[in-house]
Design a protein that fits this description.
Pfam families: Nitroreductase (PF00881). With 252 residues, the protein is α+β, with helices and mostly antiparallel strands. The protein is built from eleven helices and four strands; from the N terminus they run ααβααβααβαβαααα.
Length: 252
C-alpha cells in the first residue's frame, strides 16, 4: 500500500461542497493531469469544457435532472468525445496533400466513436484522481445525457462532438463512507469468463442494502441487484442512438 493506492481506494462521490474557491493553479494541474492520460493512437479525441457562466450552469442543472450541485459546485467540467478536431485536421492535410486524393477521415465509424468515448473517460478519471490528490472531491454527472441535444446546443458543440459526462469538483462539505464495490471474484476472471456465484452476489446485496439504510436513514433499502434493475426500467435514454447518429457518429 502507498499514498497513490490509498487515494484510489478511498474514492467517494462528493455532492456537497464548501464555498471555498478552487485556485486556478489547481484547476490547471487537474486539466494537465487529464491531458496526461493514455489516448488511443495519440488521437486525443476529447475536449473538456469548463462551464463558468452562471446562466449556462443553471440551464445545465435543469437538463441534468435538477441536480443542484451541477449549478452550485465550484467547478463544473464537461468531458466530450471529440472527433471534430480530427476531421478538421485530416481535411486540412487533404488541402496540403491534394495529390493523395480524398481526406483520410471518414465520419460515422463505430470504432472512432468508441475511441473518442474511451479517451474522454480515461481523461476524466485522471482529472478526478488529480483533484482528489489536491484535497478536492467530486462526482460524475451522466445526467448530462438526459437531454444531450439541448446540452450540446447550449455548449455550442459542433458536429462530431458529444457530451460523455459532466464532473462537479470542489472542496468537500461531507464525509460519506466509501461504497463497497462488487467482490473481486465477480469481476476478476482468469483465462475465461465465468458466471458469477449467486451466494457471493447475495452476500454483496445484503451489504449494499445495509449501506443504503445507514446512509439514507432507512429511506432507501435497495440491494445492488434491485438498484440495477430499477435503473434499467426507469432510464434507458432511448434518444441517444438518433442523437449520436445526427452528430455524425455510429453510422457504419
Amino acid at each position: 500500500m502507498n499514498q497513490t493506492l490509498e487515494l484510489m481506494l478511498s474514492h467517494r462521490s462528493i455532492r456537497k461542497f464548501t464555498d471555498q474557491k478552487v485556485d486556478e493553479r489547481e484547476l490547471d494541474i487537474i486539466i494537465r493531469a487529464a491531458q496526461a492520460a493514455a489516448t488511443s493512437s495519440f488521437l486525443q479525441a476529447y475536449s473538456i469544457i469548463d462551464v463558468k457562466d452562471p446562466e449556462i450552469r443553471a440551464q445545465l442543472k435543469t437538463l441534468c435532472g435538477d441536480q443542484e450541485y451541477v449549478e452550485k459546485s465550484p467547478i463544473f467540467l464537461v468531458f466530450c468525445g471529440d472527433t471534430h478536431r480530427i476531421k478538421t485536421v485530416c481535411e486540412s492535410e487533404k488541402v496540403l496533400q491534394s495529390d493523395q486524393g480524398d481526406s483520410s477521415y471518414e465520419s460515422g465509424w463505430t470504432e472512432t466513436f468508441i475511441i473518442a468515448t474511451v479517451d474522454a473517460a480515461i481523461a476524466g478519471q485522471n482529472a478526478m484522481l488529480a483533484a482528489e490528490s489536491l484535497g478536492l472531491g467530486g462526482v460524475y454527472i451522466g445526467g448530462i445525457r438526459n437531454h444531450a441535444q439541448e446540452a450540446s446546443k447550449l455548449l455550442k458543440l459542433p458536429e462530431e462532438v458529444y457530451p460523455v459526462f459532466g464532473m462537479c469538483l470542489g472542496y468537500p462539505a461531507q464525509d460519506p463512507e466509501v461504497k463497497q464495490r462488487l467482490p473481486k471474484q465477480i469481476v476478476y476472471h482468469v483465462d475465461q469468463y465465468s458466471e458469477m456465484d449467486e451466494a457471493t452476489l447475495e452476500a454483496y446485496d445484503t451489504k449494499i442494502s445495509d449501506y443504503y439504510v445507514k446512509r439514507t436513514k432507512g429511506k432507501i433499502k435497495d440491494s445492488w441487484s434491485e438498484a440495477v434493475s430499477k435503473k434499467f426500467v426507469q432510464e434507458k435514454r432511448e434518444h441517444m442512438l438518433k442523437f449520436l447518429q445526427d452528430r455524425g457518429f455510429i453510422k457504419r
